[in-house]
Amino acid sequence: MTATETRTPDPAGAGAPHRAIDVAIVGVGKIARDQHLPAIAADPRFRLAATVSRSGGVAGVENHPTLEALLDARPDIGAVSLCQPPQVRHEAARSAILAGRHVMLEKPPGQTVAEVQALAELARAQGVSLFATWHSRHAAGVAPARDWCAAHPPRRVRITWKEDVREWHPGQTWIWQAGGLGVFDPGINALSILTAILPAPVRLTSADLAFPSNCETPIACDLVFAGAQGLAVEARFDFRWQGTPAWDIEIEADDGRLRLSDGGAALAADEAARPLSGPGEYPDLYRRFGDLIAAGASDVDVTPLVHVADAFLLGRRLTVEPFHE
Ligand code: NAP
Description:
alpha/beta, Rossmann fold, Dihydrodipicolinate Reductase, domain 2, 2 domains, 6-stranded parallel β-sheet, 9 helices, 28% strand, binds NADP nicotinamide-adenine-dinucleotide phosphate
């Protein structure tokens, strides 16, 4: 389910390829360096005009220590891409929208559902584009998987999302603090794919959440969802996994099986690998952001975050051994 709505188009978007949109990156951490900077550099519709970073930003790029400083100093910067931890994203997004800037949100789009909905309202009132991104939905296998599910109604889905938190999130203390989501930080990527490929919604029916005794967020969880016509979905997320990560979704229909692996980058139907191609997740996110700005539209789908909120509402809480990095 994607919520997209339209307002007056911005001539700086796709209709005017000669004029790039000046964009600022806010929070220059792992995802900004690994994905956002290269994606912006490769997209002629955007130009990296500045950063907001407490730790110096990007060599050769104008940096501001706070978002407020950037918004005051650079009214010409039309868009900001918010790449900080979710706990501080709402206030930043609110300031940027009130200053009339288009906003791209990293996933998860906020630390609560209501704050994301409030941003969507504010963006509508201010006449700017808000894009709550779900990067995994832009993996090459996701669109073909959605097409397969439309033709072969799923009966059972098994999700396995396991990775070593020490390898994939080193030093990210925010992930263990309330609002940081713990294992749902990667797990919500699986839920973003699930909710993009199933032909009908599912609802959470049970959850077990394992909290280290010294952390505010879970290190592992088991989830069960139910859908129409007997559809059953089981998901296991685990940060304690060591070795090769598993980011897999296996789907059974009456007349076939689908396996989406490597976070959506690989696809096999009935054990036969399907050739895939695509621009890559983050180049496709910036293509979409440019299209939304050009069309005067926003794209804010909270469904994956609703499932996580439901897991915290319904989940049985188990206390497990403390986590030390
Ligand atoms: P990170 O490496 O910890 O980087 C986040 C950056 O945000 C920090 O380097 C810092 O940048 C800034 N920041 C940190 N704490 C802050 C605070 N309290 N207030 C303001 N700014 C703060 O985290 P990340 O892995 O890039 O993840 C950031 C977001 O992207 C998360 O929501 C995550 O789910 C999402 N994401 C991550 C990945 C991944 O593979 N890592 C993939 C997709 C999406 P400055 O020092 O420049 O201020």
